[in-house]
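Handoff note, outgoing to incoming analyst
You'll be picking up this chain. Sequence as last confirmed:
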Amino acid sequence: MTQPANTAARRLVETLVVNGVDRVFCVPGESYLAVLDALADVRDQIQVIACRHEAGAANMAEAYGKLTGKPGVCMVTRGPGATHASIGVHTAHQDSTPMILFVGQIALTDRGRGAFQEVDYREVFGGLAKWATELESPERTVEVVERAFATALQGRMGPVVIALPEDILHEDGGPAPVRAVTPAKAALDPAFVEQVRVRLAQAERPLLVLGGSGWTTEAAAAIGDWAERIGLPVSLSFRRKDILSNDRANYAGDLGLGCNPKLTARAKAADLIIAVGARLGENPTQGYTLLDRARTADTLIHIHPGAEELGRVWTPLLSATADNSLAALALSAIDPGRTWTAEAEAAHADYQAFSTPVPVGGAVNMSECMAHLGEILPPDAIVTNGAGNFAAWLHRFYRHRACRTQLAPTSGAMGYGYPAALAAKSVHPDTDVICIAGDGDYLMTGQEIATAVQYGINAVVVIVDNGTYGTIRMHQETHYPGAQRVIATDLKNPDFVKYAEAFGAFGIRCERTEDFPAALEAARNAGRPAVVHLITSAEDIAPNRTITGLRS
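Most recent structure output, in case you need it:
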């Protein structure tokens, strides 16, 4: 069947093209076949990447949005397809990532009958997305999709979900799109900037905290240069280590899980904290213990693109709603009339000491492996991860040197890292893209290696195999110590080399620290998707922590 030129399905795809969408990550479904058919006519403009699970597709779209700053687009079918994809929507919401999820839906004429795979998407996604809606008037297709782009990109960025009733897709789609959506961005009031200057000039122990999404390379460099020039110590929020180069002379480390105790002490002692883009949620504030509401009323200047985040947990001294990058550019013009060079040097020395490899008892020292990764990869290499104790080694011992080189879920989503790596490699095929994944983490989306092989997406994944759900095991051993109390955290894993080879990918096994450089080099040079199966010991459960130590 050939579709007429003006169907809602065609108008939807035309709106994607006008707004610069160059990739769609999907699992196909009969409920939105009309949209897929319309995409067939724009193959030269939009690449459709068919994935093996909706969670993988949604994670790829989220990672695309995080990497590019443009909404990542995902398409899935109704019912189970949508609920599988919900994890990516949750991550996009927690991580402030622009994303649009299109969901095939039952016909409008069948709504409310309990039809096959019927779901009320406004209800299901209402608390996960910035906006969840259903296309009910085909002539408003362009209006609804354009609103989705604006909603995803404006204020605090986030995900939008649009349900597409299959009968609507074949009807007249109304007027065609005219131009791309230009998101509105708020800037700082000059009077507010002057207030910041006055407070900063009075501070003896200031700390700059950067976080959030939507950073431009230029703005990150500008505020980085400014802070380094005046000796202002700077910390980055949880899993935002790529906003500034970790080699800057004033870099104090990241406020994340397993934070440097000296950094937490510095933050608690600060008499002024300027937070730009960071929500200052649970993980950056060490379980809401790093800050004190009474103290923040005198010491916290909070700038965030979402007004709803200001005063949500912490009472600020000063607050403003502004785009992260525009705020950074404005702040970087401040002359406080003084410097804090000694503070900055001490903060960076603390970071360097904390990120220096530590001894372990097993044959593989993850701290040395991650340090090696940082030594041999170029500054623009993109490193991804999901969730688990394995990531603590990466975040602590790998030093990012360029903006947009870290893809990691602040939501703590397992299975995120490998799809994220595929999204990144599809966007930057000539850039090194390395995923560090735990064994339990990888197998939640490991089937996407089939997607990698099918589309020639030659990312490398290092699977850190310690035979356990490491994070849960660590807490289990802490709260319920003893080998006889271990339950539900042991894993029986496949031979990941054979697993990779079965899909047509490259695989190599590594069981010693000294063999890791050669194994990684072989994977990088394989010319196809590659797996490094890195065998580690669960005894070395986290940096400076052992199972034996937790039990004692």
